[in-house]
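Table S2 (continued). Query chain:
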Amino acid sequence: MIKSACHCGAVRFEVAAAPKWVLDCSCTVCRRYGGLWTYCRGEDPMTLLSEPDPAATVVYSWLDHEIGMHHCRTCGCVTHLQALDHETQPIFGLNARMMIGLDGANITIRRIDNGHLGWFWTRPDLPIIPGHHPNTPPPGREEDWGLS
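Corresponding output:
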């Protein structure tokens, strides 16, 4: 089971297992949000075990108003995608960047050029630079779920 949370911990969801792949989309909105998407339908679907509290998010919809991009009302993280044109509004896309303890080295990044740019930010050009922030995770860490 993989637990997920926004930065402040107000929006949480759980999936049965880590995704096999994530999608980096270069469309005008996904590129700006920086999300890496995994899906609850289609090829290698994720199994959503628990859904976030709908009151914890605010929805942004663009152009055709078919997809709602959910953001945490408190910290603003983009957490998931939800169909707006269905009566039951199923959650179908999850931002894998919210998943706690995910080993990105074992997950394939697929890229789709919906922005027609011909390039992406996600590419292994240089070695990883060590971080400068203290090693204290935000409230969405596993300890907040009562796992430790």
